């Protein structure tokens, strides 16, 4: 399995790039969004990759982040979603947008991708909704110092629960960062994370995100 390649871009196509790695050229297919973020021909590049193996075909797909690669892998697990459809969804929404749409059950955003109909979009949301917090946690693991400071404020802010233990503060910071990426206001996200941490102090980042989303879900 080829999980990552680093080399020099030889040329760019409409849906792929050719990357020279010590004299060997790899054709790597990417989403429109990823292609737009890559440097020009002759420049160095490194991509996380996923290899699709079929009886008559080998295709390499490239991603700028592990989160994008993980969403591609999960999207491909949904019936009716092939590599082309997965790249269309990621190209339209980006990995954060996919996380947001699936976590919030927003299948209309998924449907906005080229070639994705309403039934497929609904299937993507329904089948992957429980897996969204774990992927969001991957992205939030690189929480900034600001997010960590926000988590400190969550713990120090008076709330009607017992504060989470010190060892759980990193998970709180990451969960808070992930909820911020979903568009929740800092105040409501902080309150939900604090309550989730108080009720399940042993929860990891994905567990806190999952619990906080349930608390933030519209009632009734």
TrEMBL record:
It is found in: Cytoplasm. Residues 1-64 are annotated as: Domain I. Residues 73-92, 108-127 form the Helix-hairpin-helix DNA-binding motif class domain. InterPro entries: DNA_helicase_Holl-junc_RuvA_I, Hlx-hairpin-Hlx_DNA-bd_motif, RuvA, RuvA_C. It comes from the Bacteria. Its main location: cytoplasm. Residues 167-220 are annotated as: Domain III. Keywords: Cytoplasm, DNA damage, DNA recombination, DNA repair, DNA-binding. SMART domains: HhH1. Has three domains with a flexible linker between the domains II and III and assumes an 'L' shape. Domain III is highly mobile and contacts RuvB. Belongs to the RuvA family. The RuvA-RuvB-RuvC complex processes Holliday junction (HJ) DNA during genetic recombination and DNA repair, while the RuvA-RuvB complex plays an important role in the rescue of blocked DNA replication forks via replication fork reversal (RFR). RuvA specifically binds to HJ cruciform DNA, conferring on it an open structure. The RuvB hexamer acts as an ATP-dependent pump, pulling dsDNA into and through the RuvAB complex. HJ branch migration allows RuvC to scan DNA until it finds its consensus sequence, where it cleaves and resolves the cruciform DNA. Homotetramer. Forms an RuvA(8)-RuvB(12)-Holliday junction (HJ) complex. HJ DNA is sandwiched between 2 RuvA tetramers; dsDNA enters through RuvA and exits via RuvB. An RuvB hexamer assembles on each DNA strand where it exits the tetramer. Each RuvB hexamer is contacted by two RuvA subunits (via domain III) on 2 adjacent RuvB subunits; this complex drives branch migration. In the full resolvosome a probable DNA-RuvA(4)-RuvB(12)-RuvC(2) complex forms which resolves the HJ. This is Holliday junction branch migration complex subunit RuvA. The lineage of its organism: Bacteria, Pseudomonadati, Pseudomonadota, Alphaproteobacteria, Rhodobacterales.
């Amino acid at each position: 399995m080829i999980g990552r390649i680093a080399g020099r871009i030889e040329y760019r196509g409409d849906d792929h790039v050719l990357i020279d790695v010590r004299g060997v050229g790899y054709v790597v297919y990417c989403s429109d969004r990823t292609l737009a973020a890559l440097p020009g021909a002759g420049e160095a590049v490194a991509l996380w990759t996923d290899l699709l193996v079929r009886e008559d075909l080998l295709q390499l797909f490239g991603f700028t982040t592990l989160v994008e690669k993980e969403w591609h892998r999960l999207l491909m697990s949904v019936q009716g979603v092939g590599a082309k459809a997965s790249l269309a969804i990621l190209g339209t929404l980006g990995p954060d947008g996919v996380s947001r749409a699936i976590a919030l059950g927003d299948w209309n955003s998924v449907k906005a991708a080229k070639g994705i109909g309403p039934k497929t979009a609904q299937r993507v949301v329904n089948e992957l909704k429980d897996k969204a917090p774990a992927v969001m946690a991957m992205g939030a693991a690189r929480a900034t110092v600001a997010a960590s400071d926000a988590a400190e404020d969550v713990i120090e802010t008076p709330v009607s629960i017992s504060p989470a233990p010190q060892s759980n503060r990193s998970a709180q910071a990451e969960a808070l960062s992930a909820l911020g990426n979903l568009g929740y206001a800092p105040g409501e996200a902080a309150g939900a994370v604090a309550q989730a941490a108080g009720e399940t102090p042993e929860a990891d980042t994905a567990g806190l995100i999952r619990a906080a989303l349930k608390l933030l879900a519209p009632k009734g």
